[in-house]
Design brief:
There is one protein chain. This protein has 84 residues and is mainly alpha-helical. It has a domain of 53 residues. The chain has two helices and two strands. β1 and β2 form a beta hairpin.
Length: 84
């Protein structure tokens, strides 16, 4: 059994760098590659734009239409009350 607190206790058969992430961390956090949302090719998870197609790697959160409508309504009411 491997002792996670002992830095000298690592298995060469695993092919892991002793200074890099442990096998447990790799299992927990997954691969360093993700799929591009636009073209589906594998790119590094730290990338924001795909080097192949130029699309965003991670989907951008869109503001819901109802939020925009409420903000515009509030601004319109503020302008109306300020003018009157």
């Amino acid at each position: 059994m491997r002792d996670p607190d002992d830095p000298t206790d690592w298995d060469l058969a695993e092919g892991l760098d002793p200074d890099g992430p442990s096998a447990d961390d790799l299992d927990r956090f997954g691969d360093e590659m993700v799929r591009c949302a636009a073209c589906g090719r594998a790119v590094y998870d730290q990338s924001s734009v795909c080097p192949i197609c130029g699309g965003f790697v991670h989907e951008q959160a869109k503001t819901p239409a109802w939020t925009i409508a409420i903000v515009l309504l509030m601004v319109a009411l503020l302008v109306i009350f300020w003018v009157l």
